[in-house]
Structure prediction request, 280 residues.
Amino acid sequence: MNIHRYKHLEERFLPRLTSTQVRDLPKEDALVILPIGATEQHGPHLPVYTDTILAETVLDEAFQHLSKDANIWTLPSIPFGKSDEHMDRPGTFSFSFDTLRSILLDLSRSVHANGFRKLVLFNGHGGNIDTLKLAARHVRIETGLMVFIINVGNLTIPASIISEEEMFMGIHGGDYETSLLMSSYPEWVQDDKLPKEVPMLADKSKYLRFQKGNFAWTIEDVSVSGILGNAQLATKEKGDALYREHGREVASCLLDILTFEISELIEHLPIQVTEAGSAK
Prediction:
C-alpha cells in the first residue's frame, strides 16, 4: 500500500499503531476495514493495479468526510484478488477462489481475536464479490463477527457524469475507471492508447447481463482489447466528480455501519401464532 500518498488514509491506518495502542483501542464501538483489490490487466491504457488503487483512493476520499473522533480503522490492502477471468492476458496475478477465501477467513479471525466486533470488506474488483459473500457468511457463523461488504462498483454513479449507456457495458477499463485513474494517478494512464470496445451482449440477449452475473465469461470471450466500454470518453474532471460523490456515499455507509447492531433487527416480543400454526 502506498500509504504516504493518502494523507487521510494514513491517519486511519491501524498498523501504524503499536501493539499496546491496538490493545487499548475501545473495541465495542470500533469498525475495521479491509480493502481488497486486484492486480490484473486493464487494457493498453490503465495500470494492472487499477482495482487496488480504486479501493484505496475511494476510501481515502471517504475519510475526508469523517470526524477524526470516529473509531474507524483500516488494515493494509490485499492487492490481489480472484482474477482468473483475465489470466490469459499479461499483467494478471490472481488468487484462486480457495486461496482468497482462506486469506479472508484468516484475517477475519484475526480481527475477531483482537477483540473487534465489526469488519468491512471494502472491495475494488467485481470478480471478488461472490468469494467475499461466501467468506463473510462463514465468518459470521463461526465467530459472531459482524461482517459487511462495500463494493466500489456498486456505488452511485450519476448519469450526469457517466452515461447510462456506458455504465451498461463499460464495466472494465471504460469511461468510469479511466476517469478515476486520470484524477488520482494521471501519470499511470496511457492517454495515447485509450480504447473503445463494446460487446454485442444487448443485441444478442435480452436476459444475460454482466451486472447480474448470470453467465460465466472470460475476457477472451467478450473483448479483443481487454476492456469493456469507451475509455475515450474519460476525463480528469469526471474522475474528480466521481471521487466527491463516492467519498460522501462511503462515509455515510461507514457511519451507518458503525452504529448498526444486528441483534436489534428482531423485536423481542412474544410471537403470536394463528390457529393454522403460522406465526404473525
The mean pLDDT is 94.
